[in-house]
Design a protein that fits this description.
The protein is α+β, with helices and mostly antiparallel strands. 24% of the residues lie in helices and 40% in strands. Strands 1, 4, 5, 6, 7, 8, 9, 12, 13, 14, 15 and 16 form a twelve-stranded mixed β-sheet that branches. A two-stranded antiparallel sheet has the order 2-3.
Length: 318
């Protein structure tokens, strides 16, 4: 099949596939966390490219193009469990020069298909940097190819920072926020150099974990005290630039809104300092609630109590 036919199918045809959830994501009882729900969505998008003759390996090895998820906005409606296989439908939602997709996940419950999650996903094809020979694609992939991942239209919500001072302390001063500096390891990266979307999903998960521990309501503490677990109905991450292997990544996690006593939304801003300049590399948000574990397979949403509200809204360590 020709490249033109493959591109046409990629942009026009929907695909449906079964994606098993990963056992690694089963951290609390048999429920699968938000990060691994997003991994299922990522795998569905990758399969959409594969089934249309333009898999990630093909794109890179033949044409020198790295497949990058650059925007991932996911709403979760029903929990996935260990041993589930989600049915994923990928629907092209972009145009002839933009790779954008709607992904719908469903799972069987009591013999019926139940909506599990939906997501909006943007993809860019990033040109390789190592200068190997590539095949001619007749310009058909040109509309989707970029020299680097960059989104200058989106900015970070950060105070003015003195690069000669304590950046972590400045980033949280007077704000309901937590921040830390972290060396980017190779296992968060792909295509030899840059952090991939799954790496930022892992960073968002760690941001929540560190923030809650800092506020005295760590996940283990709440499990031991009252069998409460955090649940996530919505998450989103957008890549703004490239974060490179072994750079120092700064992550700022800020509580933006507490809705009554039901949910709270936190914003994650990530940046590096390159050539003595702050370079935003990713931004996103995550919405959390709490649920009490009823038994090994069921949970029930609960309202925040005074302890949780104090930790979230006043910034006081308990």
């Amino acid at each position: 099949m020709t490249i033109k036919a493959n591109v046409d199918k990629l942009l026009r045809n929907s695909t449906e596939t079964s994606v098993p959830v990963r056992y690694e994501g089963s951290n609390i009882c048999t429920w699968i966390g938000f990060k691994h729900v997003n991994y299922v969505i990522e795998e569905a998008v990758l399969e959409h490219f594969r089934s249309n003759g333009l898999g990630a390996r093909e794109l890179y090895e033949r044409f020198g193009l790295g497949l990058d998820l650059t925007n991932l906005d996911t709403r979760i409606f029903s929990a996935l469990h260990t041993d589930d296989a989600a049915t994923a439908v990928v629907i092209p939602s972009g145009d002839d020069d933009r790779l954008s997709f709607t992904v719908k996940l469903s799972v069987m419950r009591d013999g019926k298909a139940t909506k599990a999650a939906t997501a909006q996903v943007d993809v860019h094809l990033r040109r390789g940097t190592y200068g190997f020979d590539t095949e001619n694609d007749d310009g058909l992939l040109e509309p989707f190819a970029v020299e680097s991942i960059a989104d200058s239209a989106t900015t970070l919500d950060l105070p003015d920072l003195d690069l000669n001072g304590d950046i972590v302390q400045q980033a949280t001063a007077g704000r309901n926020a937590f921040a830390w500096k972290w060396r980017i390891p190779y296992m968060y990266c792909h295509y030899n150099e840059r952090v991939q979307m799954s790496g930022f999903l892992r960073q968002m998960e760690e941001a929540e974990d560190l923030f809650l521990a800092d506020r005295g309501i760590s996940i283990k503490t709440m499990l031991d005290d009252r069998r409460w677990i955090p649940v996530v109905p919505h998450s989103r991450i957008r890549l703004l630039n490239e974060a490179i292997m072994e750079e120092q990544l700064y992550t700022v996690y800020t509580i933006e809104q507490v809705f009554k006593t039901l949910t709270y939304t936190a914003r994650m801003d990530c940046f590096v300092i390159r050539d003595n300049t702050i370079v935003p590399v990713a931004t996103g948000s995550i919405t959390h609630g709490y649920a009490v574990i009823d038994d090994r397979s069921n949970w029930t949403l609960v309202d925040f109590d005074e302890r949780v509200m104090t930790a979230l809204t006043r910034g006081e360590k308990q």
